[in-house]
Queue: 4 jobs
Job 1
Amino acid sequence: MNADEPTTPRDEPLEPHPAEGEVLYKETFRIIGNDFEHGGEAAARVKAILKQLAFPTDAIRRLSIANFEAEMNVIMYADDAEMELAVLPDAVRVTFADHGQGIPDIAWAMQEGNSTATPEMRARGFGAGLGLPNIKRNSDEFSISSIVSVGTTLCYVVYVNGSNRGAQ
Amino acid sequence: MIDRPHAVATDPGKCIGCVACSQACPTKAIRVRNDLAAIDDELCIDCGTCIEACAYDAIRPRTSSPADLRKFKYTVAVPSLTLYAQFGDDVLPGRVLHGLRQLGFDETYDISWMCEMVASATDAFLSESKGPWPKISVTCPAVVRLIQIRYPDLIPNLVPIETPRELAAKLRRRRLAAERGLDPSEIGMFFITPCTAIIHSIESPEGLEASYLDGAFAITDVYGQLLKAIKHDPGSDSTEMISPRGLRWAMAGGEISSMRNANTITVRGLRDVVYVFDRIESGTFQGLDFIEAYICPGGCVGGQLTVAGRYLAQRNIRQLARRMGDQGAVKEEKVRSLLRDHFFDIESEIRARQVRPLARDLRQAIALKREKDALLEHLPRKDCAACGAPDCETLADDIVRGNAKLADCVFVRLEELEGKPALQQGGDDA
Ligand code: SF4
Ligand code: SF4
């Protein structure tokens, strides 16, 4: 692994697990590239699950924005992906591992306003040029790695702020 | 939590327990137990869908009764604009207002001009607001209720401007009290409503400590008598106050059509409202300034408690607005001065009413979720609703909350009768 250049793609998709802790609940969803018809469904299902589990609305809101963005990224740019939801005692971790074109320049893609969404995509309300930075902004931990022509692995965590849980 | 009765009630004498309402209810608030539909107060948004779904007339709106009028020294009928849309071209609003007085009200009070004022006030608010975007209209109380229970994150998006019906009642009550030397509580103001959502908003308002209205009569209930009164007496009240532009509020699209800001959309019908709100919650639609959303597919002309039906009513309103000249009746300085006085502001915070999670404790909630998923594996997934819950998933949810049992499912019972163990996980003691 090339530790000296953090933004260059790694040789292997890494398994980032920024938030450690016992996984209390896990569920995976499959997302298919170009499946605009079902765009946003995985994010909506995750939202419904977290509501049942009494997560505070702010955490759900931030996570939902990130999830929707990440899900649409797959639909717009990748062939397919597995989205894993992991509920930890005081955080939710989501990992997207996709197969697809990958991101040649992560540093560029992480800059606000840089998006390769086509005008048609934007007109349909997707890819407002926010993409990855928006996911990062709405999560508490964020990591990404990508191999061109292989795929991208994205992992982010939203903390529920333990003391707030269950509060009105 | 449950602070008020809902605007819909089941009649045990008429309900046969057919489950049509329970399957139609968008928030899954209805369970049919012992051949009687029961409405869960926490989940109901008073959309009135169940009233339309019931073929036995067993779900009725809780409206005011003529006896309620006698509690007041002076009574005012405040008709929804949709009332004007129930009649053909030969019955103009002046005659509707005149006829309404014959039904026992001391006066009638039109709200079309207030609709126009609120549109201007909304424009002014949007030009000064700092977000979050898009802002959402509070006109339809069922939409507000839906946001409270299902989209609490969108509460800051609600426009903090009171509805025209409440503002009109507030203003008229104040003036009447002064003019006639009455105590405000001696004046009874009754809305003539197209829907149950508004009835409930009078009973337990959001954004107000107490409604400025005292009750509501359904358009369906007054229609027959009103028609008779109109035929009997050709008189007409003054329509000087009526704003043709404000009249458009009765239909979906009317609110934004009388606004200056055009970066707006109209969302009609519950399915579309859910679709759009889901997306706003995920951070899209932020480029819009304003959303006018109605639970009823055509807007208020399509309310469940109306007679003409939404297509004809829409045509009637459009025709009416055109005949009356289609212009505004409100002076902008007036709006600006009222804005400065905070006349339009909602008076209290609209709060989330989050619907119960499986459990407050995370581990416990996860345990229940697993249990629910396991149950769902064993349920037939036919969503037949024969168990009394609207679908299999809701039954599983009810079971883990202790409100139902697996044997409520007819398929499970059938399997048991046929000797097949319905649930493997029970082990020996099954
Ligand atoms: S009024 Fe609407 S939400 Fe309430 S029970 Fe009827 S269908 Fe359900
Ligand atoms: S759209 Fe209008 S008639 Fe229908 S529920 Fe909402 S306020 Fe009532």
Note: The interface with chain A takes residues 152-153, 278-279, 281-287, 352, 354, 357-363, 365-366, 369-370 of chain B (CB under 8 Å).
Job 2
Amino acid sequence: MTVQALAEALCLTPLCMPEPDREVEGGYIGDLLSWVMGNAQSGDAWITIMSNDNVVAVAVLTDVACVILSEGVTLDGRLRELAEKKGINVFSTELSSFAVGAKVAALL
Amino acid sequence: MAALTFHYDVDGQDFSSAGEASVAVKKKLRQLGFPSDVIRRCSIAMYEGEINMVIHANGGTADVLVEPEKITIILEDHGPGIPDVELAMKEGYSTSTEAIRTMGFGAGMGLPNMKRYTESLEIETEVGVGTKLTMVVKV
Ligand SMILES: Nc1ncnc2c1ncn2[C@@H]1O[C@H](COP(=O)(O)OP(=O)(O)OP(=O)(O)O)[C@@H](O)[C@H]1O
Ligand SMILES: [Mg+2]
């Protein structure tokens, strides 16, 4: 399923979507960045409550399909621009990490 | 292909730009046509080392040597050194402050990740002098 289709199905708010056609192949939930770098797979939807420059870098390096900021977390304008420039899809949702993770799992 | 080398200065004061060298290396390796798995392992291992230099050692330098069969990453700093390398290598061991943890670091997984994603990780360190990490990823 593409990132765009996933976002529509789950009513995620797009913060930036430079690569709407990326395939989502799995998911990973985590806020500790080294843990994410050790375990997230390329093509995952990464669900986190962290929102800073390092999240964008980690998304680039792990090659995840998108970042889903849960629990109402968003990105400020500068970070949104950075993510856009680096080709990282970022969405926001009011749902908890658990709830959005369960929904992603049900769709894949 | 002759060996290509890249050099970066890693600023110890600027936490938000930490990782720029690793992201730049990732892009270069992609342009050079390396397999995506090799690129991913190299750039994550380098990022962990780069972040460690920023958090624990007030910055340093990164040198990357690209050869057809292997990529060598050398990270050198003049920080406090690591008193007990065996302990530092343990999953979950971290001396990171609360402020660092709120940014998402400090899980104590950086060095274990570097070991896991590279074919070899060599640590030369002396307390009060600094630390030099040499990592090799085979293509
Ligand atoms: N370049 C360095 N200079 C001095 N000490 C270091 C250096 N790199 C690592 N250390 C020490 O080794 C410990 C373990 O490092 P490691 O990267 O595994 O974990 P961390 O940086 O604390 O957390 P994480 O990497 O999960 O965000 C650090 O907490 C620090 O005490
Ligand atoms: Mg670390």
Note: Residues 58 and 120 of chain B are 25 Å apart (CA to CA).
Job 3
Amino acid sequence: MIEGKPIYQYQVGDQLQITSIKLKNVMRRRLLDLGFVPGVTIEVVQKSPLGDPVAFKVFHTTIALRKEESSLIYAKKMNREVI
Amino acid sequence: MSHTIALAGNPNTGKSTLFNLLTGLKQHTGNWPGKTVVRAEGELKTDNHIYQVIDLPGTYSLYSNSADEEVARDFIIFEKPDITLVVVDATSLDRNLNLALQVFEMTSNAILCINLIDEARRKGIHIDKEELSRQLGIPVILISAREKIGIIQLLKTIDQMIDGKIQTHPFQVQYADEVEQKIHELQPKIQAIFGDSLPSRWLSLRLLDGDKQLLEALKAYIRDPNFVHSQQQLVKGDCCHGA
Ligand SMILES: Nc1nc2c(ncn2[C@@H]2O[C@H](COP(=O)(O)OP(=O)(O)OP(=O)(O)O)[C@@H](O)[C@H]2O)c(=O)[nH]1
Ligand SMILES: [Mg+2]
């Protein structure tokens, strides 16, 4: 079973930890190079009115992805420490 | 004899700012569109040597996913600069070191220039350059191209590297056993064809990745080792430099 769900399904402000990337070939390479690497923490920063594309913060840089790609990147939500 | 220095790094890490500072050139726009590539080249004179400095386009990777990446990669692989300065953003090392590791697979003559050190200090970021240098196996210099910090140290290191006074052992990424095994099988065959003129471990990895576009470049290289140079249109500096 795949852990977590596709990153576009989360809400703005959610901190996510990437669990797997189901993309192939050049697109996979491209997203790895942009920082979408399993284990890395990203944040959902903005959704366009129709929900596509969605912008994510990865290593201090904001990157917008279309659903085509973001539906194939899986992540789980990070637990926020509640004080 | 003049030596070549290439500036490589992610977009917006201050490569052109450093290029301008080193070469005394004022105007420069990173303009490398499509196939006919315009590249910026300028001259740097130190106490001991003369260098041709080449400003490569900023990329997140050197896997030739785009024309920019192809230009930067072909330059490092086929034109073999004497030194590659990997210019990284001190405030974003985690992201920037990805490209640095890729460069280390392509050449061992690399220096890590951690730029925007002024910005990092303002943000309270401390960088242990000795430890980083030890772990990466290459010289690490903290600079600010804009505030002109660390430049003398950089020039000294460049000269020392050319004079053979610095030995580098760049950190090499280790892959899964299966991949390492395949590299082990391929590498001697690649060495038999290219000797030490091209980096055989890196070539093995690219072939395992099925990089067809690189195969084309290799064919062109076998026909004419200077093919990259003849493909690119060279733009020299505006005044007193180059020519
Ligand atoms: N604070 C600070 N800013 C810098 C420094 N070096 C460059 N900059 C600024 O960073 C921005 C990008 O600089 P460039 O030299 O154009 O960066 P580049 O790496 O050539 O960018 P690309 O060609 O797009 O890859 C500019 O606004 C520079 O003024 C530095 O050492 N400190
Ligand atoms: Mg530039």
Note: The longest strand of chain B covers residues 2-9.
Job 4
Amino acid sequence: MKLLLRVLMIVVAALIVSGATFALSRTSLASNMSGPQRGQFERRPSTTADGASTREQASAPQLDGAGPPEGFRRGGERGGGGLFSLVEVGGHLLVIALIVAAVSFLSRVTQPLQARLAARRKPAPPASTA
Amino acid sequence: MQPTRTKPNRNKINLVIDLAIFVAFLIAMSPHFSGIAVHEWLSIAFGAAIIAHLLLHWEWIVGITRSFFKKARWSARSNYVLNVLLFIDITIVIFTGLMISEDALPLFGIQTIRGGIWHGLHSFSADLSLVLVGLHIALHWEWIVKMFKRFVLTPLLPRRLSPQMQLTAQPPDKKVQP
Ligand code: HEM
């Protein structure tokens, strides 16, 4: 019962965030974000009235220079894989590794300062009367 | 005779779940790598794993929520703020992902919105989540290294090769706060 209540609280919190996102998406601020995105899959092929796909149009070369080289693009396939995408995973791993390294370095460098601040916050021991 | 039941080690469970979440996150971050169907279903499962992750750290969440404006340490406060931001961001990534779903929701006959704002938001919040996850891992790096040594390296390495690790390792039943 306790567990169920906790799950419910998490789900409600997520629903509040989702609701707020939905509400914000209706504002003018959100419409500024709907431009072309970097590195996204090529525009989804639109479908003509008779249901036929116009994939050739959609996969026409893009001149924006963003995203993977043409040869590595998904090319409309639904599966993944490929060398470029593996490099993408490595890139994300590298970003996380760099953040961890930077934070570790910063906390090591500021350690003496943190120790001094902590010592200052501690009240001085009462003077001995002996 | 009573069968002896060993209590599952909390730190070990945390390490296994956190590792699974991390691998799932890396795969979810690269839909070109996984393909769109795997991306969507894995990310939905990822949401469930996040709920498990939060349940496992429930005491910490409640504790800091109660003491946030009173006596919590600054490190705990900043950690808490980062975790709240991460929760909001991951929720937005999953929600916007569902809004542009090409496989999961259409399977149930639910029509989704294609492109536009939702794609932009999905992409932006996913990029932001990479930074937030990096910071989240950085703040728990000591715990991760300690647990990795205890549950992965020490059992794998022959005993005589790792005297240093045996010295640093704590008894397995002692719970260490991440
Ligand atoms: C942890 C959760 C998630 C992460 C980290 C994530 C990450 C990403 C990233 C990085 C992209 C590429 C964006 C770009 O092209 O710039 C993407 C695209 C996409 N994601 Fe997600 N996502 C998540 C959850 C979901 C969920 C739950 C769904 C749907 C059920 C979903 C559906 C999609 C779709 C349909 C695309 C667009 C593919 C296209 O451009 O054709 N995602 N996601």
Note: Residues 42 and 59 of chain A are 7 Å apart (CA to CA).
